[in-house]
Write a structure and sequence with these properties.
The structure holds 2 protein chains of 2 kinds. By secondary structure, chain A is α+β, with helices and mostly antiparallel strands. Chain A is built from 2 helices and 12 strands; from the N terminus they run αβββαβββββββββ. In chain B, α5 packs antiparallel against α7. The chains are: A alpha+beta, B alpha/beta.
Chain lengths: 172, 525
């Protein structure tokens, strides 16, 4: 009877260990399909102001306290950033991102991971960061050669668009 | 016989669970049944994780370049000890999640999340989140491919919330964007911040639990440690390749206990995960108030019989009784006062009250503290009715409870049963009275299994009162050979019947209880 009880205890701990072992290191998960490549599109871009800065007139400056007599005043609100990403002319991403901050006075942020098949691509990034509603203010085209398992980082910063992570050559 | 008022028996899932657990009671014994100590076992696993974590931290490098290398060195270059410590750290953390889930499910099935227990149930909810965040932060520290993916996915999850203007995910887009200070931050969160929050969380969780069982029995501690140790030796934990944020994550061996949220996020979206996580947590937290059970009346103090001894306050498993200064001018310092919001109507206080003696010659019989739905007068009247109907004689009286083995199903030809809200309600003089005054040949007390009392302490206090280790103790004059205790779960009625038959057969040889000098007959006042 004691042997049976001991066997029962052993079996209980074996079941606990088996469950922990089974789900503690598996089953495996593959976040992206095997053989795929990845394009990471990261944007931290400061768009233009909605209203351009304005020079203060002499009378307006006189009305201000002496320590606050600035030359120009600027509104805080900035334009949304509108951009698109095309691979070999095919539209992959088209988004409009509002600036961060309570007054919409910060940068526009965007981050997306885009799995793609490996291969050579012509990447086109277009961006509008002014109050205009049609057309773009910036366009950049780059050649991208991606092997399976590789990733490329397209960064849209304050100074424009850059491509990193893989060896590339720029086409324009 | 039946109790004064019909009370609910355990629902079928609870009975099914009890049947399953009975198998483990056979192997471990009731007091060491792992299912009776799930919460304590989860805490014990966290102790193991703490001790092994301290060991790992001694050799760990909290910087970007050294983190993965130092974990590899611990795993492979310290002969066997480093690898075992790392594996134990991981597996004990995993076991804690498994045990927590079982603990929660068990309390839910047994409907022990409602009523006065809402506080423990509610304060258990944040613990789930704390433990999961604790585990996830630990995965970052290895800084292998899995860690890189977890970091990226965690950042994506957090970036969905409107709390960061600069997305956290942009820190993990390439190897160059990862800050070396990340490991100082994660180290602080994993090694200092979360352990403190977890300890505080556990303290809150147990705040309204009197005499909480924080440590499992030694048998359980050794057994679970041995199981995890064997697992660590047979399937040691290893790392993936070093983190490379410029490569596409490949096949990842996921720890589903902690990281299941990230594959789900890959298949859905961060918004869905937040919605499911917060919605699920809120739904679980609201369970005590969804379909609430009908509340039984709470304990009432009868000041003329209360001497302010404090035994009831000492014994109440829910801390529902406070001893406060006397208000009726009698020459006692204190009196008991019931906090109705904490009382679960178990009646353990009645069992602890020295005034709860059926031998007292007053009608109706009152006591210092009792349940309106099952008074000491009800108790004595039932015993007296049985005696007056000449139903006692060579019969056994079996005291049962609402949540343990069903004594009414187990009745044998020579037994009567009385079902109490909890066997802890049974005052020791009640046993004496059943033998001496009612004339039963024997008394059996059949309550919940060892360490599994529905009201946590009823079975323990009853045993201690019978063994005279707790006040009020069973009088020495009660022949112990005419008293039989049986602690079991619903579903073990057959066992009870067999044991009762054996007990009944043995009574012939037992000494007869001392006859009372005068037959007590009450005529009323």
């Amino acid at each position: 009877m004691k042997a049976l009880a001991l066997s029962g205890q052993g079996l209980t701990w074996a079941v606990l260990a088996a469950l922990v072992g089974l789900f503690g290191q598996g089953p495996s998960f593959t976040p992206y399909e095997p053989g795929q490549a990845l394009i990471k599109l990261s944007m931290a871009h400061l768009p233009e102001r909605l209203e351009p800065c304005r020079q203060l007139s002499e009378a307006e400056r006189e009305a201000l306290p002496p320590t606050r007599r600035v030359e120009e005043v600027c509104g805080r609100e900035r334009a949304p950033t509108r951009f698109e990403l095309r691979l070999d002319g095919e539209l992959l991403v088209a988004e409009t991102v509002e600036p961060a901050g309570l007054s919409s006075g910060g940068r526009s942020y965007y981050l997306e991971y885009l799995p793609v098949d490996p291969g050579r691509y012509t990447v086109t990034v277009r961006l509008a960061d002014t109050p205009r509603t049609t057309g773009f203010d910036l366009e950049r085209e780059m050649n991208l050669d991606l092997n399976a398992g590789e990733s490329a980082l397209i960064e849209i910063g304050d100074d424009g668009v850059s491509l990193g992570g893989v060896e590339t050559e720029e086409s324009s | 016989m039946s109790s004064a008022q019909a009370r609910p028996r355990p629902v079928w899932p609870a009975r099914a669970l009890a049947r399953g657990e009975s198998v483990l009671s056979n192997a471990f014994g009731g007091a060491a049944n792992p299912f009776h100590h799930l919460g304590a076992l989860a805490i014990y696993c966290l102790y193991i994780a703490l001790v092994t974590g301290i060991y790992l931290f001694v050799f760990y490098s909290t910087n970007l370049e050294g983190a993965w290398r130092s974990v590899e060195a611990i795993t492979h270059e310290q002969w066997i000890i480093g690898g075992v410590m790392r594996s134990l750290h991981r597996y004990s953390s995993d076991a804690a999640v498994l045990l927590l889930a079982l603990h929660m499910l068990r309390e839910l099935v047994r409907l022990r999340h409602t009523g006065a227990r809402w506080f423990s149930w509610l304060t258990g909810m944040p613990l789930i989140w704390i433990v999961l965040i604790f585990g996830i932060s630990g995965y970052w520290m290895v800084w292998d491919q899995l860690a890189a993916w977890v970091a990226t996915a965690s950042a994506r999850l957090l970036d969905w919330l409107p709390i960061f203007s600069d997305p956290m995910g942009s820190s993990f887009v390439s190897n160059k964007t990862v800050s070396g200070r990340l490991f100082t931050l994660i180290g602080f969160i994993h090694l200092v911040g979360l352990p403190i929050i977890l300890v505080l969380g556990i303290w809150f969780h147990l705040l309204r639990v009197r005499y909480p069982r924080i440590h499992p029995t030694r048998k359980l501690m050794l057994g679970s440690l041995a199981g995890l140790l064997v697992l660590s030796l047979v399937v040691p934990v290893t790392s993936h390749a070093p983190a490379d944020l410029e490569a596409v994550p490949g096949v990842l061996a996921i720890d589903w206990f902690y990281l299941a949220v990230f594959p789900l996020q890959s298949l859905s979206s961060p918004g869905t995960i937040w919605l499911a996580g917060t919605g699920g947590t809120l739904l679980l937290a609201a369970l005590p108030w969804i379909l609430p059970r009908r509340r039984q009346p709470v304990a009432e103090v009868h000041l003329p019989d209360c001497t302010g001894c404090g035994f009831c306050a000492e014994d109440c498993p829910y801390g529902a009784i406070d001893m406060v200064p006397r208000t009726d001018g009698r020459n006692f310092e204190l009196e008991a006062r019931v906090n109705a919001s904490l009382c679960v109507s178990c009646g353990i206080c009645t069992g602890s009250c020295p005034s709860s003696s059926p031998f007292r010659q007053r009608t109706p019989l009152t006591t210092g503290i009792e349940m309106p739905h099952f008074t000491m007068d009800d108790f004595r009247n039932e015993l007296d009715r049985a005696r007056d109907s000449e139903l006692t004689g060579d019969r056994i009286l079996v005291f049962g409870c609402d949540h343990g083995v069903d004594v009414e199903k187990a009745e044998i030809g020579t037994a009567h049963s009385m079902v109490l809200p909890c066997v802890g309600l049974l005052p020791p003089p009640g046993i004496d009275y059943a033998l001496r005054n009612s004339g039963y040949a024997g008394v059996a007390v059949a309550g919940c299994a060892d360490c599994d009392c529905h009201h946590r302490l009823g079975e323990r206090w009853t045993q201690e009162r019978i063994e005279r280790e707790r006040q009020p103790g069973l009088r020495k004059r009660v022949p112990r050979e005419r008293l039989f205790t049986f602690w079991a779960k619903p579903g073990q009625e057959k066992d009870l019947s067999l044991r009762l038959e054996a007990f009944s057969a043995g009574l012939d040889k037992a000494s007869a209880p001392e006859a009372p000098r005068l037959a007590i007959r009450r005529t009323g006042t």
